[in-house]
Amino acid sequence: MARHALPAGTLEADGLGCLRGDVPVFAGVRFALEPGDALVLRGPNGSGKSSLLRVLAGLLPPAAGRLFWNGEAIDPGDEAHRGRLAYLGHADALKPVLTARENLAFWAKLHGAAPDGVDAALDRLDLRELADTPVGLLSAGQRRRLAIARIVASPAAVWLLDEPGVSLDAAAVHRLAAALAAHRAAGGIVVAATHQPLDLAAARELDMRNHEPAPLPPEAIP
Ligand SMILES: Nc1ncnc2c1ncn2[C@@H]1O[C@H](COP(=O)(O)OP(=O)(O)OP(=O)(O)O)[C@@H](O)[C@H]1O
């Protein structure tokens, strides 16, 4: 499948920390990702993988540290940077009354993606036969495939994926791996949180257990 040109660049995190409800979740997260790189976030439940992805997506402000694109600091709410990101959360962010194709067309228009990328993304996730089915009638795995197709159809350079393989059967896991490889080959960057193995060649790993925040001082504990 032909890929649109990606706005290739480097993504760096320097000393990122995060609070959830005033509770420190992680601290001191550092990485530097070049075009084509992949970073897998590991760690037990509650260690902060989803929180880190939300910080990277600009959905949660960091409590400490900065993010850089091509060496330039990214300000919170930076619209140009938002355009470089495609975020897949636990929820699939699909409209149940629209068909699979209509959902992708909606997202493609919103993100300025090429309309011909919609059918290509449906093909890549083997969804062509379900293109005209309302999303409310799809199975969990079919919905997850469509949510991944939404990322594939986007023009974003940086894919931020939270448990992308959830609900996928073996064939769909294979298609996900192929989509990730194609994105990286086109100069894209992948950051994925996963408990399952993802077939990501030469991916780097970031273990959230190495970024546990320092314990609160006794006087700060109510
Ligand atoms: N909206 C929220 N408000 C307050 N605390 C939250 C909120 N969301 C998550 N947390 C807390 O932040 C911590 C990190 O959660 P997070 O979802 O980032 O972990 P995770 O590593 O992705 O977990 P999992 O493997 O279960 O998906 C947990 O202690 C969780 O209870």
TrEMBL record:
One of its GO terms (molecular function) is transmembrane transporter activity. The keyword Cell cycle does not apply. One of its GO terms (biological process) is cytochrome complex assembly. Residues 11-221 form the ABC transporter domain. Keywords: ATP-binding, Cytochrome c-type biogenesis, Membrane, Nucleotide-binding, Translocase, Transport. It holds the Pfam family ABC_tran. NCBIfam families: ccmA, PRK13538.1. This is Heme exporter protein A. It comes from Limimonas halophila.
